[in-house]
Amino acid sequence: MIEYVCIVSVPPAPGDFRLSLVPGEATMLVARWLVPTPTNGVILNYTITCQPAVSVTLPAEVSPPGSEVTTNLTVLSAYTEYSCSVVARTNAGTGNSSNTDVERTDEAGKGSSM
Q1: Is residue 62 part of a domain?
Q2: Torsion of Cα atoms, 28 then 34 then 39 then 42, to 10°
Q3: Domains in the chain, number
Q4: Which CATH number does the domain housing residue 26 bear?
Q5: What CA–CA distance (Å, rounded) separates 34 from 70?
Q6: pTM of the predicted model, to two decimals?
Q7: Side-chain-side CA neighbours of residue 30 (13 Å)
Q8: How confident is the model at residue 3 (pLDDT cuts 50, 70, 90)?
């Protein structure tokens, strides 16, 4: 009889985290990242933390499922610079944060980019 042992630990940081502008959408950015390698278990979900780059407000968080590597960040303020990062979570806990990326949302009705 062969017995397999799976050791689950926290995942490393997701790679290549990027924010991108959605032209014409003044209150939305798109976040993309790479699955951490090794995953060190099943990725249960990711947590993306964002806050205005020049702010003392608490950051907002969204948690897409572990099968997703892109998500829309909505209900943001128009023409505001946001600083965001992502972490992955397995049954063993939450891993390290990705790189931080900064992007400005579009101007309301302008369709311009940063």
Answers
A1: yes
A2: 40
A3: 1
A4: 2.60.40.10
A5: 9
A6: 0.83
A7: 10
A8: confident
